[in-house]
């Protein structure tokens, strides 16, 4: 038997052992490997589908977040507009109230001035009347010193 050409017995027994090992592998090992590969394929498929679902969910969440941002911006703008409108309204009301108060105070001041003016005029009239009476009294006393003038005045008054 040489190294290069094996003998028939060696070929027979090698082939027989190979077929036995192949048969055992086909009955016991290959189904287990096949099952493991199938399970692995199923888990990979399941993981891929879950990844797709997660990707879709992330896209939906991004869309929801963007919508919420837009709504928040719109709400913020609305709140700012309302605040500005209320501020303008409050300023206008304060200006109107200040104008009304100023007009009232001006009217009160005019009335007070008018009352003071009337009081001063009445006082001046009283003083003028008093001075006029004093002057008239002095004039009448001087003109009535003469008897003829007194008689003449009495006649005029009686007439």
TrEMBL record:
<feature type="transmembrane region" description="Helical">
    <location>
        <begin position="6"/>
        <end position="26"/>
    </location>
</feature>
<dbReference type="InterPro" id="IPR002146">
    <property type="entry name" value="ATP_synth_b/b'su_bac/chlpt"/>
</dbReference>
<comment type="similarity">
    <text>Belongs to the ATPase B chain family.</text>
</comment>
<feature type="coiled-coil region">
    <location>
        <begin position="37"/>
        <end position="119"/>
    </location>
</feature>
<comment type="function">
    <text>F(1)F(0) ATP synthase produces ATP from ADP in the presence of a proton or sodium gradient. F-type ATPases consist of two structural domains, F(1) containing the extramembraneous catalytic core and F(0) containing the membrane proton channel, linked together by a central stalk and a peripheral stalk. During catalysis, ATP synthesis in the catalytic domain of F(1) is coupled via a rotary mechanism of the central stalk subunits to proton translocation.</text>
</comment>
<keyword id="KW-0375">Hydrogen ion transport</keyword>
<dbReference type="InterPro" id="IPR005864">
    <property type="entry name" value="ATP_synth_F0_bsu_bac"/>
</dbReference>
<comment type="subunit">
    <text>F-type ATPases have 2 components, F(1) - the catalytic core - and F(0) - the membrane proton channel. F(1) has five subunits: alpha(3), beta(3), gamma(1), delta(1), epsilon(1). F(0) has four main subunits: a(1), b(2) and c(10-14). The alpha and beta chains form an alternating ring which encloses part of the gamma chain. F(1) is attached to F(0) by a central stalk formed by the gamma and epsilon chains, while a peripheral stalk is formed by the delta and b chains.</text>
</comment>
<protein>
    <recommendedName>
        <fullName>ATP synthase subunit b</fullName>
    </recommendedName>
</protein>
<keyword id="KW-0813">Transport</keyword>
<keyword id="KW-1133">Transmembrane helix</keyword>
<keyword id="KW-0066">ATP synthesis</keyword>
<dbReference type="InterPro" id="IPR028987">
    <property type="entry name" value="ATP_synth_B-like_membr_sf"/>
</dbReference>
<comment type="function">
    <text>Component of the F(0) channel, it forms part of the peripheral stalk, linking F(1) to F(0). The b'-subunit is a diverged and duplicated form of b found in plants and photosynthetic bacteria.</text>
</comment>
<comment type="subunit">
    <text>F-type ATPases have 2 components, F(1) - the catalytic core - and F(0) - the membrane proton channel. F(1) has five subunits: alpha(3), beta(3), gamma(1), delta(1), epsilon(1). F(0) has three main subunits: a(1), b(2) and c(10-14). The alpha and beta chains form an alternating ring which encloses part of the gamma chain. F(1) is attached to F(0) by a central stalk formed by the gamma and epsilon chains, while a peripheral stalk is formed by the delta and b chains.</text>
</comment>
<keyword id="KW-0175">Coiled coil</keyword>
<dbReference type="Pfam" id="PF00430">
    <property type="entry name" value="ATP-synt_B"/>
</dbReference>
<keyword id="KW-0472">Membrane</keyword>
<keyword id="KW-1003">Cell membrane</keyword>
<keyword id="KW-0406">Ion transport</keyword>
<dbReference type="InterPro" id="IPR050059">
    <property type="entry name" value="ATP_synthase_B_chain"/>
</dbReference>
<keyword id="KW-0138">CF(0)</keyword>
<keyword id="KW-0812">Transmembrane</keyword>
């Amino acid at each position: 038997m040489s190294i290069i050409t094996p003998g028939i017995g060696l070929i027979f027994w090698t082939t027989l052992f190979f077929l036995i090992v192949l048969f055992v592998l086909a009955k016991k090992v290959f189904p287990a490997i096949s099952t493991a590969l199938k399970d692995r394929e199923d888990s990979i498929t399941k993981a891929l589908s879950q990844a797709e679902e997660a990707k879709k969910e992330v896209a939906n969440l991004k869309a929801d977040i963007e919508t919420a941002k837009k709504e928040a911006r719109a709400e913020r703008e609305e709140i700012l507009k309302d605040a500005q409108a209320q501020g303008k309204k409050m300023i206008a009301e304060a200006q109107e109230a200040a104008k009304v108060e100023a007009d009232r105070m001006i009217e009160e001041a005019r009335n007070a001035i008018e009352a003071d003016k009337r009081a001063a005029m009445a006082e001046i009239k009283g003083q003028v009347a008093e001075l006029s009476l004093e002057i008239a009294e002095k004039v009448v006393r001087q003109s009535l010193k003469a008897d003829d003038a007194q008689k003449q005045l009495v006649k005029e008054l009686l007439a």
